[in-house]
Write a structure and sequence with these properties.
The complex is a heterotrimer of chains A (348), B (270) and C (563).
Chain A (H helix, E strand, L loop, with lengths): L12 H16 L4 H18 L4 H4 L1 H22 L8 E2 L3 E3 L8 E3 L2 E2 H27 L2 H5 L7 H29 L7 H29 L12 H24 L5 H25 L12 H18 L1 H4 L9 H10 L2 H6 L2
Antiparallel strand pairs in A: 1-4, 2-3
Chain B lengths: L5 H18 L1 H4 L12 H22 L4 H24 L3 H14 L1 H20 L5 H17 L6 H32 L13 H48 L21
Helix pairs in contact in B: 1-3, 3-7, 4-5, 4-6, 5-6, 5-7, 5-9, 6-7, 7-8, 8-9
Chain C lengths: L6 E9 L8 E8 L4 E5 L6 H9 L1 H4 L4 E8 L2 E2 L12 E4 L12 H12 L3 H15 L14 H13 L5 E5 L7 H18 L2 E5 L3 H4 L5 E5 L5 E4 L1 H7 L5 H9 L8 H7 L1 H13 L12 E12 L2 E12 L3 E5 L6 H9 L6 E6 L28 H4 L3 E4 L12 H12 L5 H9 L14 H13 L5 E5 L7 H17 L2 E5 L3 H7 L2 E6 L2 E7 H7 L6 H5 L8 H9 L3
Parallel strand pairs in C: 3-8, 3-9, 6-7, 7-8, 13-17, 13-18, 15-16, 16-17
Antiparallel strand pairs in C: 1-2, 1-4, 4-5, 9-10, 11-12, 11-14, 18-19
Helix pairs in contact in C: 3-4, 3-5, 4-5, 5-6, 14-15, 14-16, 15-16
Classes of the chains: A mainly alpha (348), B mainly alpha (270), C alpha/beta (563).
């Protein structure tokens, strides 16, 4: 991995996520292997150049491994239980019929070239989807992204920051206690020694969490603005409205008979209520942010490229029909657009 | 600690309803719906679930913000996150649920719900990797925590540990089945004999799902159930005592938590 | 004391919710603005509770019943929870690292201001101010976990200073620090009081460091009462007194000097008397017979990755001797103790324990040679090792995992195969009156140390190692620990302890080793080592320099010889 000087940490995390989501949507509409491959190549290139130093960035190769595993699973399942019969070359494997109570499924059977290609292609699309998430994480440092969460989600944000601070301390504490327990010269059974080690670690950790809470309280955690009374009811009402919208919208989405516009508008309505409630809840809490990440033209360009990719991919079937093995000029354009962050960020 | 008033309870109920729909989507989806293209369905549903979980977390954080509760959530989530790589060796993820069950038992249903989401979120960030399955995992873990908080309050001693171990085993097993169900089309794709067909009768889809489940993950799920039950038996007593002791020491509001009798001995403080 | 004070307690009483004991009873005091007020009291008194009452943590966070009124700069703490007092009072707890909420130094500095809702520009200015004030520039973007204890303490103080509080409350800020680190933190605190006019309330056990700087003192008793006044008044009748005050009582100096310089000015006559007396005594070099070697190490090396913690140490521990290891934080003291016990990392060198029990009577004037081949403690299984060599680690509570004192003692007896009740008996000698059913986590620092000592001594090992045992102990507990160690030495145990506490070492140790950067710099009798170097000298030695006396007891003895 190259890891350039242009630290991606200075780019607002939302821009990277917007870009990644755009590419993700594109992968779900990809017509075949080549298009998906182009998108993956663009992703890997951007990550290689801009990944930061955090441990999350170093985990990107693990995502690549996971992606390869997904593709392999899809192909293996096709060979085992896929619906056979297709064009292209054939590899004749013996058919093993299963008894009737197992649904009359036949294992193996003649494996066709087009079937293999289809399963490989859909597997690759899934792998690409996964790599979008991996790329977004490698490019943004999740710990700093958490600081950008709205104040209404302080429950999640603060608890996560505390958890990330405590986790390495827990590991170190466990090693220390294990070392100390050996000093007592006891031979305990497996179960007893596990609980003998976890008990002091847990007690220590609980005392630590109380100290953190005392420190947070003493420094003014979650002070409400003086004009904040009465907002709580409005927030809860909006949240319940949002949930009702989500429930109805999801049901409508799944049911084939309701018109699409109804289900989508229910969901969008619910989302609006949620955002409104969140804004009101954030306003109630009196806290600001130190060195907030700036949002500039750079970020705007990156997120626009993501949206453009998503839109192009959505309508690609209407613009031009795909060629063999999934080649599509539209997707070539999408892949090129996916590399726009490179010149944009390097230009500063 | 985490006030479960009427409105927050209603929010939890609605969120659970959406969750049930999201998990059972292969069985319920009709022909002609937007979700027929099985690659995009988990993404769309995942986004909906993410929104639903955020809404519930905002609602839970609205009333009675307490630094102690947040610190406790952070701590238990850290414990779960640290245990996740260990459990990958045995059957995957059950050790994470261990502390979710115990924390939900001591601090109540609302706390348990929040603890489930936050633990899975943190462990995904730290050790597990983010992916489109995360909102489903978060919701499943939240249900496990909430359920532990809804168990009858009065039990103590051996009975409590036994009931919790049984509950843990059932949860461990059902978790695997639920994740399988929601990601079944994702894993297999449309072209196999075991795939789901949108709009097909419920029994038919269910039959295919059961075979898929048995062949792929039955062993894992049973192992997970066992490990979770055994873990509760070994660590449950100490952990419950430690959590209750902390709750007593720092004046968590007794109405929500499950602290039990006051201590007669004096605790020396400086 | 005037009635106006920035912190006013008016007939305050406090009791925790699950206990019947009144922690504080009828406390009235008024601390003026801009003063450094020192809060002292034995363990088990309400010192920490008093500090928690100032910013509202008690009763809002800890629970409990408050009677009376506490007013902080006009705000009543019973109606103002801690978050409403956050802009007024800054609190740093006993373990500053445990109070860190974020992962990096600059984020931590800004946290308090973020919670107060200050605009970004103001936050940036104040972060720079505070970095200059406390000298944190080099640490600015470092992760908090990589800082040393002294640096963590300074970052913790800095992070509460950014909200520009008028009052700063510090609970034992120097207890975990070596003397240099403690000096830096104290200098920073003094700068805050003298230059910025912040009122600072400090609770301390190690009075000798802070007493000269205090403008007023609060003495909290075990019965819950508190006396407030000028240092000279409070120290006169106080049961807790640093060596300088004890020496002053012995010599009858008036007014009681608080700093070494003032004491030296008054100490002229005493120095003359002592010089006379000491020259009349003769030192009989043969009178001090050293016991047999109980543990010997040659060329001990410990390496963690690229860091050389110990680079070739040779030493021998003799029976009946208490040896102290001193040195800066990070000089390798802990590594030495763990490597000697056998469970720690040992990259090179040999460690041998000699079993000298059941031998023939000694001959005066000679160091006995070891009587049989030594055993390497690393090769022993744990249950045998505990019978020869025992280690009490830095945080003794790591060893305790059962839920009652009695259960721990019984487990210890079972582990060494001793008669049931030996550990409990030992515990009774070390900490009398400790009920068997108490939960180990509820004990005070001194009681927990006593419990762990009893547990580790159940096997009657003849080498005992202690890693920083004096941290968090008050004078009384330290005295009792010193007595116990002397008793053990009399029975023939070889004791090795590491400590920063010069006064404790002066009282208890026979020999002192000084480690720096993994090498043994000095190895000699306690009197020679502690009087040779100014940074290691106890208060009495500094006052009476160049006389080789270390403790007030030694002065008392020397003066009483004639009469």
């Amino acid at each position: 991995m190259l890891g350039f000087v242009a630290q991606s940490g200075t780019v607002h995390p939302m821009a990277w996520w917007g870009w990644a989501v755009g590419v993700a949507i594109a992968t779900t509409r990809s017509p075949g292997v080549i298009s998906t491959g182009l998108l993956i190549a663009a992703l890997v290139l951007v990550v290689a150049i801009f990944h930061g130093d955090s441990p999350f960035a170093r985990a990107f190769p693990a995502y690549l491994g996971l992606a390869a595993a997904i593709v392999t699973i899809r192909v293996v399942f096709y060979i085992l239980v896929g619906i056979k019969g297709g064009t292209g070359f054939e590899v004749s494997l013996p058919t093993i019929p299963l008894p009737d109570w197992a649904g009359g499924i036949e294992l193996l059977g003649p494996v066709s070239g087009s079937g293999l290609m289809a399963s490989f292609s859909s597997g690759l699309a899934l792998a690409a989807l996964l790599l979008c998430f991996g790329a977004a994480i490698a490019l943004t440092d999740p710990q700093r992204t958490l600081r950008g969460l709205p104040a209404s989600l302080h429950l999640l944000g603060t608890a996560t920051v505390i958890a990330m601070t405590l986790a390495p301390q827990l590991v170190e504490s466990w090693q220390r206690v294990r070392r100390a327990q050996k000093l007592r010269g006891q031979r305990l059974r497996r179960g007893r020694s596990v609980s003998a080690t976890t008990s002091p670690v847990l007690q220590d950790a609980l005392e630590r969490s109380l100290k953190i809470a005392a420190s947070m309280d003493s420094r003014g955690y979650a002070r409400l603005r003086s004009d904040a009374s009465g907002g709580s009811g409005a927030v809860l009402a909006l949240m319940i409205t949002a949930l009702i919208g989500a429930a109805l919208g999801t049901y409508a989405l799944m049911d084939g008979t309701t018109p699409k516009w109804l289900s989508v508008s229910l969901l969008v309505g619910g989302a609006t209520a949620a955002v409104l409630g969140s804004v009101i809840a954030s306003r109630r809490i009196h806290s600001t942010s130190y060195r907030p990440d700036p949002w500039g033209t750079r970020e705007a360009l990156i997120i626009v490229s993501g949206m453009a990719i998503a839109t192009l991919a959505f309508f690609s079937a209407d613009i031009a029909s795909p060629g063999t093995a999934g080649w599509s000029a539209v997707f070539l354009l999408c892949a090129v657009l996916a590399t726009t962050p490179i010149p944009v960020v390097m230009a500063r | 600690m985490m006030l479960l008033g009427f409105r927050t309870g209603l929010a939890l109920g609605l969120a659970s309803g959406v969750g049930v729909l999201a998990f059972t989507w292969p069985l319920l989806t009709g022909r002609g719906s937007l979700l027929e293209h099985n690659a995009s369905a988990p993404i769309v549903l995942g986004l909906v679930l993410l929104g639903v979980l955020s809404v519930v977390l905002i609602a839970l954080g609205e009333g009675g913000i307490d630094a102690k509760a947040i610190a406790m959530l952070g701590l238990l989530a850290a414990v779960g996150a640290v245990l996740r790589p260990l459990s990958a060796g045995s059957a995957g993820i059950e050790l994470v649920f261990l502390f979710i069950v115990l924390g939900g038992r001591v601090f109540g249903a609302g706390f348990g719900f929040a603890l489930g989401s936050i633990t899975l979120f943190v462990s995904a960030l730290l050790t597990g990797g983010l992916g489109p399955w995360l909102p489903f995992q978060m919701l499943a873990a939240s249900w496990i925590g909430m359920g532990a908080g809804l168990l009858p309050r009065g039990m103590r001693g051996r009975l409590e540990i036994t009931v919790l171990a049984g509950y843990g085993a059932v949860c461990g097993f059902l978790y695997g089945q639920a994740m399988n169900l929601s990601f079944w089309p994702f894993t297999l794709g449309p072209g196999t004999a075991l795939s789901f067909h949108a709009g097909a009768p419920l029994a038919e889809n269910l039959h295919r799902f059961v075979i898929f489940s048995i062949t792929t993950s039955l062993g894992w799920d049973l192992a997970r159930a066992c490990v979770l039950a055994v873990g509760i038996v070994i660590l449950g007593r100490h952990t419950l005592d430690a959590l209750r002791r902390t709750a007593r020491l720092a004046a968590f509001s007794p109405a929500e938590s499950d602290v039990g009798h006051r201590d007669q001995q004096s605790l020396p403080r400086q | 004391m005037t009635q106006d004070g920035i912190i006013r307690f008016d007939r305050v009483g406090f009791r925790y919710s699950d206990s019947v004991r009144q922690v504080l009873h009828d406390v009235t005091l008024a601390i003026p603005e801009g003063e450094l007020c020192l809060v002292i009291g034995p363990t088990g008194s309400g010192k920490s509770t008093l500090l928690q009452l100032v910013n509202g943590l008690a009763p809002h966070f800890t629970g409990g019943e408050l009677t009376g009124t506490i007013t902080v700069a006009g705000r009543d703490t019973s109606t103002h929870p801690p978050r409403d007092l956050a802009d007024l009072v800054g609190v740093v707890g006993q373990d500053p690292a445990a109070g860190f909420v974020t992962g990096r130094v600059d984020d931590e500095l800004a946290y308090g201001m973020e919670q107060l809702g200050l605009p970004d520009r103001v936050m940036r200015t104040r972060v720079e101010e505070v970095i200059d004030l406390l000298g944190l520039d080099a640490l600015r973007s470092r992760p908090l976990s990589e800082l040393s204890a002294g640096e963590q303490q300074r970052v913790a103080i800095a992070s509460v200073l950014t909200s520009h509080p008028r009052i700063l409350v510090l609970d034992e800020p120097t207890s975990a620090l070596d003397p240099t680190g403690a000096e830096e933190v104290l200098a920073a605190i003094l700068r805050l009081v003298h230059d910025l006019g912040i009122t600072v309330l400090v609770a301390e056990q190690r009075l000798e460091r802070v007493i000269q700087y205090a403008d007023s003192m609060v003495l909290v008793g075990v019965d819950g009462t508190a006396r407030f006044g000028l240092p000279t008044e409070i120290l006169q009748g106080s049961p807790l007194a640093p060596p300088i005050v004890e020496l002053s009582r012995l010599a009858g100096w008036d007014p009681t000097p608080r700093s070494i310089r003032d004491a030296r000015r008054l100490a002229g006559p005493m120095r003359d008397r002592l010089t006379e007396r000491l020259s009349q005594q003769s030192e009989d070099p043969a009178a001090h017979v050293r016991g047999a070697v109980a543990l010997a190490t040659k060329g001990l090396r410990v390496r963690y990755g690229a860091v050389h913690a110990l680079a070739g140490v040779d030493l021998a521990l003799h029976e009946g001797e208490v040896t102290a290891v001193m040195g800066r934080n990070g000089s390798g003291k802990s590594s030495l103790l763990w490597a000697l016990q056998g469970s720690g990392v040992r990259t090179g060198g040999t460690v041998l324990i000699y079993d000298t029990s059941g031998g023939s009577p000694t001959q005066a004037g000679a160091v006995r040679a070891p009587r049989q081949l030594g055993v390497d403690p690393q090769s022993l299984p744990p249950e045998q090792a505990i019978r020869r060599i025992a280690l009490v680690p830095q945080s003794p509570s790591d060893l305790l995992y059962l839920d009652s004192v009695g259960a721990e003692c019984q487990a210890a007896d079972r582990a060494v195969g001793a008669v049931s009740g030996i550990a409990a008996e030992l515990l009774d000698r070390l900490a009398p009156g400790l009920s068997e059913s108490r939960h180990p986590r509820d004990l005070s620092e001194g009681q927990r140390l006593a419990l762990v000592l009893a547990v580790q001594l159940a096997g009657q090992p003849h080498v005992l190692l202690l890693d920083e045992p004096t941290r968090g102990l008050d004078y009384d507990a330290k005295r009792r620990l010193g007595e116990v160690l002397s008793e053990l030495a009399d029975v023939g145990t070889a004791v090795l302890l590491s400590s920063h506490d010069v006064e404790f070492v002066a009282h208890t140790a026979d020999r002192v080793l000084v480690l720096a950067r993994g090498e043994l710099l000095t190895d000699g009798p306690v009197r020679d080592v502690l009087t040779a170097s100014p940074s290691f000298a106890p208060q009495v030695a500094r006052i009476l320099r160049p006389l080789p006396v270390l403790t007030v007891d030694a002065v008392r003895e020397a003066l009483a010889v004639q009469s």
